[in-house]
Structures are given as structure tokens and as C-alpha cells.
Fold:
Amino acid sequence: MTDHSRRHPPRSGVRAGTPRALRIALPIVATLSIVAPLAWLWQDSRVPAVYSVMDMGYLDYGVGAVPDTSGGGGHGGHMEGSMAGQPMAPQRLVTDMVADPARPADVRVDLVTRQQVLSIGGRSIAGFTVNGTSPGPEIQAKQGQLVKVHLRNESVADGVTLHWHGLDVSNAMDGVAGVTQDAVPLGGEFTYRFVANQAGTYWYHSHQVSNPQVAGGLLGSLVVTPKSGIAQQVDVSAIAHTYGGLRTVNGKAEDLQVPARPASGSESGSPTPTTDP
Structure:
């Protein structure tokens, strides 16, 4: 008599192994679905070792984007000095964009940059100096004068440049590291020459690793007075800067007091008193 109630051992096959295979495969697939796109995005976002700024952006002549039909590469063939529909323009190096080399300088300034500890408001703050102070010395010029600034980097490890913020200067003298000049290395020197054509109050600062260097005080003021001069008798520059959370004016954590003579009657709007003869 056959016992039909006996259980037979399960047959080994695909169906018996499928749940275990899925338990292994599913986490792997899920992990890859997350990691693979992240890896691709990371790789795609990396800055290439070498690139040209001429390959960036688009041409805009005031009428919207202009397609590149020159076939020359770069900004519509600008690298080759031509562009479809535009007049021929010769190549010109940035280093050639300077003030008249034969013109003598009207204002000469020597600046030495250092990386050192500043003493401000009784605190010691790691920072930078120009000629031993922060802010650096004020550069003064009259409108139209040619300014010559000789820069020497004594101890700023990351290198340094000087950018004349707000003032239009020749491109080679603009002080943008990696674009208009190489950073001045430790122990290196560079001479800036530019014509101060715009009257006003400006400032100079480093444009190499500019965030920590400017925050650390590698800056100063640049004042260009009009050709006709200024009418007021008192003219004061006040550089407001924060060092390590400490607010300062001209490098001091205190008020800036400026002596001034009392206004006369005509200046204050009141009639000037007179006496009868």
C-alpha cells in the first residue's frame, strides 16, 4: 500500500533559488542606480586640465546671440582674427595692452606685500600687509597722470596681484591672476603702469586667492583728484573693513575723528555778521 501523505524533498531548480538571487541582486541594482548617476555628474562637473575662455559663452553684439559660422573655432573665429559678417581684426596679446611705454610716470609707488599677524583692537589676527600696514598706503594721483606701481611679494605664499577696483586701466594692468597676468610668486616682482583718467575714490586689492587675501587686509585706497582740484579744505579717506569679525575704520577698531574748522556764516546759510565803521 502506497502512502500518498509522504512529503517529497523540494526539487532543486530555478524556482527554489530565485528568491535568494533576488535578495542579492536587488540591493546591487539599487546601489548602482544611485551611485552611477552621481559618479557621472561628478566626472562631468570637473574642470578640464586645459581650457580656453574663447570657447565659453556666445557672441552678443547687442542684437542677441550670433551663431558661429566662421568654422574657425573659438569665439566666431576671433582666435584667428576674423568672423563672418564682421571686419577683420588682427590678433593682439593681452600683454600688449598697456599705456604708452615711452611716457614717463607722473606718480611712482613701491609696494611690498607680506603675510603676517595683525594687531587690531588688542587682538592678534592672521592677515596681510602692504608696506607693513593694513590697509596699505593710499595712492594719490591727479586725473590724467600716469601711475607706476612696483609690486614686490615678500612673503605671501599663494602669490599676489593688484586689481584697481572701479578704475579703467589697460587690460594687461588689470591684475586678474590667470586672465590678464600670472600671479606674482613668493619673492617675485611686477610693475603696473596705467593712466588714471577717471576722477574719484577707488581701492586696490589682491585678485589672487582674493577672498582670504582681501578679508585678511591686502588692500588700500586709490584717490584720483580732478584736474581742476577739489574745493573742500578737508578730504579724508575712510576704509571700512572687518578683520576676523572686528569692525574697523582705516585699520583701527575705533571712531575716525577728523579736525575741521567751524563753518562761517556764509557756509552755514546764516548771514555773516558785520560791524558799522
Summary: The CA atoms of residues 134 and 251 lie 6 Å apart.
